[in-house]
């Protein structure tokens, strides 16, 4: 007897795929975030944890500097960012204890630091900034020589940028490096470098430049201010008094007080002399602002 065709039979329902238990998923997610799992070996620590931020006072001289300097450049050029950090720490040791050996490759070191500061790895960025602070203290005005001046300009911009960003531990390190810069270099040429940033489009960079300018001016005597241009200096401060950021405005007020103290040091009628100077060189509105700042200091 022939079998009946099955064309008219109801189609069989395909078997549905079984749902995975949600518990298994949540357990997997938890273990991904480091929750203890007794059936798995613990994950190794991340690479960032191996980076040491060594204070300058804890750095020691190189045991064999003449040999080590020959491999420093190779380490700075490494594709392994942890090796670059190690080499930057060695560059700090050379700067502090063997600066004569580091001087011939100083431009190279500065350019590597600029590249490292642009790197998204905060550990590499911070290590580079710490190295720059030590290089400021070791070389000072030598960084403004023709062989390193271009690299210095790039470095200054990066420091102002990093001092302006939101990552607190990078920002604070950049602030310390900028203070080391002002403390280790002659104010007049540095002031010319900083002047370029008071009109920068980024208000945070303007503010950080204004702070460094105020630190410079506070170290200068009247003759140094005149050499830069006393009227130009007052006009810079007057413009920054109207800046968007309070840090820039506060730095401008500090600059005004430093100029006032230097200009009127030997004057009997200090406020009158100051008002006369401002009225002769500034707009009436700016001159009035200057007078208010100095009057508030006297009250």
Give the SSE layout.
Elements: H1 22-32, H2 65-76, H3 81-97, H4 99-102, H5 106-118, H6 122-139, H7 149-163, H8 168-184, H9 187-195, H10 203-219, H11 222-228, H12 230-240, H13 246-263, H14 270-281, H15 284-298
Short account of what is shown:
This protein is mainly alpha-helical and 299 residues long. The protein has 15 helices and no strands.
Q: End-to-end distance, in Å? A: 121 Å
What is the number of strand segments? 0
Q: Please tell me the overall pLDDT.
A: 86
- Residue share in β-strands: under 5%
Portion in helices: 55-70%
> Total helix count?
15
Structure description:
The model is unreliable at 1-14 and 19-49 (pLDDT under 50). The N and C termini lie far apart (121 Å). Helix 6 (122-139) runs parallel beside helix 8 (168-184), helix 7 crosses helix 8 and helix 10 (203-219) runs parallel beside helix 13 (246-263). The chain has helices at residues 22-32, 65-76, 81-97, 99-102, 106-118, 122-139, 149-163, 168-184, 187-195, 203-219, 222-228, 230-240, 246-263, 270-281, 284-298. Helices cover 66% and strands 0% of the residues. The protein contains 15 helices and no strands. It is mainly α and 299 residues long.
